[in-house]
Amino acid sequence: MENKGKVLMQKYEFGKLLGKGNFAKVYHAKNIETSQSVAVKVIEKEKVLKVGMIDQTKREISGMSLVKHPNILELYELSKGKLREDMARKYFQQLISAVDFCHSRCVYHRDLKPENLLLDENGILKVSDFGLSALAECKHQEGYSTQLVEPLPM
């Protein structure tokens, strides 16, 4: 299905196809009101149902909803080519920050690879595709469970 030019939720106009996997395609889109670039992942529901991956898809959505962080995907654009050492170090630090944040909330990505690391329009690294993520109950050393809630403002 060609989506270029289509409008989703009366808010996002689809652009070019950015990538595709076995069960989904990712399109560049633009917020009609703000002109902000976004990525839209279109999941082929029939294929997901056919191979029994509903639970994995729900786990991806759940994992991403539990982790709000500047280095986890919301907005992005792709970048190609080799990185200078200082830029690679900057992105690596952002990646470690995102992974540490997820782990502190007992969300484990389990599929980190270059295709799942994207850049937003400001050059900020975004972790995407939590489809293979695992959710675990957090236990402190004292044996207490961690509550999965937002911290109180200081």
UniProtKB/TrEMBL annotation:
The keyword Transferase applies. The keyword Kinase applies. Keywords: ATP-binding, Kinase, Nucleotide-binding, Serine/threonine-protein kinase, Transferase. It comes from the Eukaryota. Pfam families: Pkinase (PF00069). PROSITE patterns: PROTEIN_KINASE_ATP, PROTEIN_KINASE_DOM, PROTEIN_KINASE_ST. Belongs to the protein kinase superfamily. This is CBL-interacting serine/threonine-protein kinase 20. It comes from Hibiscus syriacus.
